[in-house]
């Protein structure tokens, strides 16, 4: 199956400009061309774009993504380095999740606190507007 650049953009969630940019900076191999010379993306191309999207969502810098993309052309010989890049990124993601969990815990605590304050205030006939941060 092959997809036009517009269809690949729609399926990947990336813009056409982003697809061209990724090609230009060598994150993706130039896709095959159809008889009219238009880009023809494959399911494998879309799979790779999906993986790149996940890497970006983890906060991986483009430079590191380019390194990873370059290494994949070396096959099994580069597996160790590619794994190392992913392990490092996983550590970074886990740290960020822990930070966000701490923020979520604080928000939950404050929400619970305000629930208690509202119950007390509403129980005595006072208004909620008088509650401070």
From TrEMBL:
Transmembrane portions of the chain: none
Pfam families: MerR_1
GO molecular function, a single term: DNA-binding transcription factor activity
Domain HTH merR-type: 1-71
Signal peptide: none
Keywords annotated in UniProt: DNA-binding
Stored PANTHER family: HTH-TYPE TRANSCRIPTIONAL REGULATOR ADHR, REDOX-CYCLING DRUG-SENSING TRANSCRIPTIONAL ACTIVATOR SOXR
Listed name of the protein: MerR family transcriptional regulator
Lineage of producing organism: Bacteria, Bacillati, Actinomycetota, Actinomycetes, Pseudonocardiales
């Amino acid at each position: 199956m092959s997809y036009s650049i517009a269809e690949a953009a729609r399926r990947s969630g990336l813009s056409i400009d982003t697809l061209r940019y990724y090609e230009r900076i060598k994150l993706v191999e130039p896709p095959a061309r159809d008889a009219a010379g238009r880009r023809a993306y494959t399911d494998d191309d879309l799979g790779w774009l999906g993986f790149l999207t996940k890497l970006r969502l983890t906060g991986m810098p483009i430079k590191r993504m380019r390194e990873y993309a370059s290494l994949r052309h070396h096959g099994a010989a580069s597996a160790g380095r590619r794994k190392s890049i992913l392990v490092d990124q996983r550590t970074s993601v886990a740290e960020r999740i822990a930070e966000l969990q701490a923020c979520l815990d604080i928000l939950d605590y404050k929400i619970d606190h305000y629930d208690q304050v509202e119950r007390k205030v509403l129980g005595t006939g006072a208004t909620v507007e008088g509650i401070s941060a």
